[in-house]
Amino acid sequence: MSTIPDSGLKADDALQRLKAGNARFVAGTARFPTVQKEILADLAKGQHPYATILSCSDSRVPPELIFDAGFGELFIIRVAGNVLSPEIAGSLQYAGRHLHTPLFVMLGHTNCGAVAAAIETRLRGTREHSRIQLLVECILPGLEDLDPQLTPEAMLAQAVEANVRWTMRQILETQEGRERQVEGRVKLVGAIYEIETGLVRFLE
Ligand SMILES: [Zn+2]
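^ thats the input. predicted complex w/ zinc ion below
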């Protein structure tokens, strides 16, 4: 179990915090990078993001901040464990077919809880609540070569990378994925974000 205490906020307080944050954003007093009204007006006409990123929902992995990217730059799909499902594949296909982003990044991260849950299932047969288990089962096929001799930390690191590679493999095994690779105009890369350091390590 997590040793980090919960936020201590009630739902309504959390909602107020979101509303206050958005109000700061609109007023141009955001604590995080602001955006000019003209840029929003320009982006309202259409989006031309240069990269599509599939990343984890983990609150410590915010792609725009990690890559210091602004509005309209990144098309982001976030799902726990950065897994592939039909809906996720549909979002990726949309990014490719309609937005023509040239780069697709499959972004895993260190200490991923979803991947840790998949390791628990793989090694000890632990089962999660119904729909969490569905997520876990998206990860399991990528963990077949997991080395059970590794320390828990090393095993999680290996599994995080294996999960990214498994997602990439599933994309590349589709006819569309193969065709795009052959054309050479679209690049698919894997990467691991280190939540301890803020560094993104792109996989070879
Ligand atoms: Zn995660």
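The two ends are 34 Å apart (CA to CA).
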